[in-house]
Every structure is written in structure tokens, then in C-alpha cells.
Write a structure and sequence with these properties.
There is one protein chain. The chain is α/β, with parallel strands linked by helices. The chain folds into 2 domains: about 180 residues, Rossmann fold; about 180 residues, Dehydroquinate synthase-like - alpha domain (Dehydroquinate synthase-like, alpha domain, Up-down Bundle), CATH 1.20.1090.10. Strands 1-2-9-6-5-3-4 form a 7-stranded mixed beta sheet, with helices on both faces. A two-stranded antiparallel ribbon has the order 7-8. The protein has a two-stranded antiparallel sheet with strand order 10-11. Strand 5, helix 4 and strand 6 form a beta-alpha-beta unit. Helix 6 packs parallel to helix 11 and helix 10 packs across helix 11. The N and C termini lie far apart (about 45 Å).
């Protein structure tokens, strides 16, 4: 097992650990009893994950005399909205929870965002534990305390900062993931590599076959490495005022693509992959990024099986959706671009014409490395 500590620069936010290893769900009960003195736990999960892991998680908790409640919602990003939140409130409030009840987010990023939002708002705040079951959630959404839901106007526009008390990643759950889900998780790992660590980039490139097959040793190293990168950035800037925005490389474009597709045309990792390609091409014009780095990015995304082109896209609709991004300031887009690998910059004065060109660059049919 690998453990990464997250130590935030505030006396009001408790430090927490991220535990990465196979078989962790079977030990969640003793862990929560010892570390959090948990007596009541509410497992919030979706309709895909519940048949796989709900019973195992509940059994571990009940085995140490923890009272277990559970609530489910329909799987998919389309469920991450106020309606689902209301249904979960209606489910949980009659059960007479108190502020010592621990919310457990069991599932992917949607479960983590939704359950975290419930924990942040129910009874004005409950402790919660992230138990990610996807690579994407393990390396991204489960760490850092950003929780929330989508709105028709855009992704993640309603939310809060609410840090978990513990993150438990059971790598054995990755074995039930479709190939597409592994690819989506790798998109966030590629993002971390390009904004922070060239050595991680080389690791992904050289170990890709082992990662796609979920080799446990290679995957444990990958997840812990990515969590360490994210933890370091979150520790510098917990509330996304400065450096934490680096983590949004590809996301301003990507979130707009998801919004225009009404959260079902593309999965999050696929939208981020396209967003990174657009951001890299814009970086060439704006910051002089070497085109060979863009080609390296596209080649790796293609090897993973992620999209790098989107013929037929509506550039105007995507640009308009970008205007609602929550990171914008004074009406100006704030974009994370690259001057080089591990040299991200936050830019707020990119002309609209150049942003349009970056979006339109995805609307091509030539080979992956040509643009």
C-alpha cells in the first residue's frame, strides 16, 4: 500500500491521508473505526457501482459495529444535478442523522462530487470519506475537496470546497472498469505530467501497456504519483486562487465540450483530452510552445485511445459555453496554457479569434500529429 499525506495550510482543515492499494474496501470498517471513530456511515453510490461493491463495503463496516445506511442514484454525469441532490436529501433527512455521521462516496467522480456536496451541505457539514472506484476519480476528483453539481448553464457551477477526512482507493476495483474508463483516467494523468512532471510523462509512455491492463504494481505507482502531484498543488492553493488553476489545463475547453454535448456525448476524460489538444495548439501561438510537444501529446492520447479530433463540432456553441466557466474573471477567459512541459501559465488576455482557431483545430480529419 502507498500512502500520500495532504496537509493544507489552515488550522481549520484537518490533514488527511490517501491510501492506495488492492483490497482496501475490505478494511474500510476497521480503518474508519480507528481513524475517525465512526459509529454511523452513509454510503452514497450509483446504480453501476452498488451491485459490485456496496455489500462488501457495508459488510466491512458492520463487522466493527458501525451502523450502515445507503443511498443510490442513477449512474452517469447527467444525474449530477439539483434534482438528484433533492432526492438524496429526501432519502437521508428522515433517518435522523447527526453531525457525527460519516458520508462515504463510493464510486467514480460523479459519486464523489455528489456525495461530497451532500456532506458539505447536509446539517451544515458532515465528515466524508472518498472511496474512488475509477482511475479518474482516484487521481483527480477524490483529492482536493472540490465537490458540486452541474447546471444547464455549465459544468460544476454549483458547489463547495469540502475536504475529505480520508481517501481509500482499492485498486482491485479497477479490474471491473471498461477499457474506455481506464483511458479517461489516463487523460488526467497525462494532464498532470504535462503541467508538472516530465518524468511522469515518460513513465506513462513507457509503461502504457501495463497501465491499460491494470498491472497492480504499475498502477499503484501511477496513482500514488499523481495523487502526490495533485496534493502538492492543492497544498499551495486550496481554494483555486492561483496555482491550483494549473490543474485545469484542458478543462476550460473540455467542460465546454461536455456542456454542449449535454454530458452524454463525451465522457469527462475524453473531453479533457480534446481540451488539452486545443490548449496546446493555442499555447504554440500564445506562448511559443514547441509544436513537437503538441505532437507528443497527441501521439500519446491516440495510443491511449482518447479522441484528439472532433469533426463537425460547433465552435460558436463551445466558445459561448466557455464564457460561463467559473474560473473566468471580469468577463475574461482564464486559460491554462503551456510554455513547455512542466511550465504552465494562466493567461487572461487571449484574443477571441485565437480561442476560436484552437477550437476549430479539433474539427479536422488529418492524421493525429498533423495540424
Amino acid at each position: 500500500m502507498e500512502t500520500v499525506q495532504v496537509q493544507l495550510p489552515s488550522h481549520t482543515i484537518a490533514p488527511y491521508s490517501v491510501r492506495v492499494g488492492a483490497g482496501q474496501l475490505g478494511e474500510i470498517g476497521p480503518t474508519l473505526r480507528t481513524d475517525l471513530d465512526a459509529r454511523t456511515c452513509v454510503i452514497i453510490t450509483d446504480s453501476n457501482v452498488a451491485p459490485l461493491y456496496l455489500a462488501r463495503t457495508a459488510a466491512s463496516l458492520e463487522g466493527v459495529d458501525i451502523r450502515v445506511l445507503a443511498a443510490q442514484f442513477a449512474a452517469g454525469e447527467a444525474a449530477k444535478n439539483l434534482r438528484t441532490v433533492g432526492e438524496l436529501y429526501d432519502n437521508l433527512l428522515p433517518r435522523r442523522l447527526d453531525r457525527n455521521a460519516v458520508i462515504i462516496a463510493l464510486g467514480g467522480g460523479v459519486a464523489g462530487d455528489l456525495a461530497g456536496f451532500i456532506a458539505a451541505t447536509l446539517l451544515r457539514g458532515l465528515p466524508f470519506v472518498q472511496a474512488p472506484t475509477t482511475l479518474l476519480a482516484a487521481v483527480d476528483a477524490s483529492v482536493g475537496g472540490k465537490v458540486g453539481i452541474d447546471h444547464a448553464a455549465g459544468k460544476n457551477l454549483i458547489g463547495a470546497f469540502h475536504q475529505p477526512r480520508l481517501v481509500i482507493t482499492d485498486l482491485a476495483t479497477f479490474k471491473t472498469l471498461p477499457r474506455r474508463e481506464i483511458a479517461c483516467g489516463l487523460a488526467e494523468c497525462v494532464k498532470h505530467a504535462f503541467i508538472r512532471d516530465g518524468a511522469l510523462l515518460s513513465f506513462i509512455e513507457t509503461r502504457l501497456d501495463s497501465l491499460i491492463s491494470c498491472d497492480p504494481v504499475t498502477m499503484e505507482k501511477l496513482v500514488a504519483w499523481n495523487v502526490q502531484i495533485k496534493a502538492e498543488i492543492v497544498e499551495m492553493d486550496p481554494y483555486e486562487k492561483n496555482q491550483r488553476a494549473w490543474l485545469n489545463f484542458g478543462h476550460t475547453f473540455g467542460h465546454a465540450l461536455e456542456t454542449v454535448g449535454q454530458y452524454h456525448a463525451l465522457q469527462h476524460g475524453e473531453a479533457v483530452a480534446l481540451g488539452m489538444v486545443a490548449a496546446a495548439r493555442l499555447s504554440e501561438k500564445r506562448l511559443g510552445l514547441n509544436s513537437a510537444i503538441t505532437a507528443r501529446l497527441i501521439a500519446l492520447l491516440d495510443r491511449i485511445g482518447l479522441p484528439t479530433r472532433l469533426p463537425g463540432l460547433d465552435a460558436g456553441a463551445i466558445f459561448n459555453a466557455m464564457k460561463t466557466d467559473k474560473k473566468n474573471r471580469d468577463g475574461a477567459l482564464r486559460l491554462v496554457l503551456l510554455a513547455d512541459i512542466a511550465r504552465p501559465e494562466i493567461i487572461s488576455d487571449v484574443p477571441a479569434e485565437q480561442v476560436f482557431q484552437a477550437i476549430e483545430s479539433l474539427n479536422v480529419t488529418e492524421t493525429a500529429t498533423g495540424h
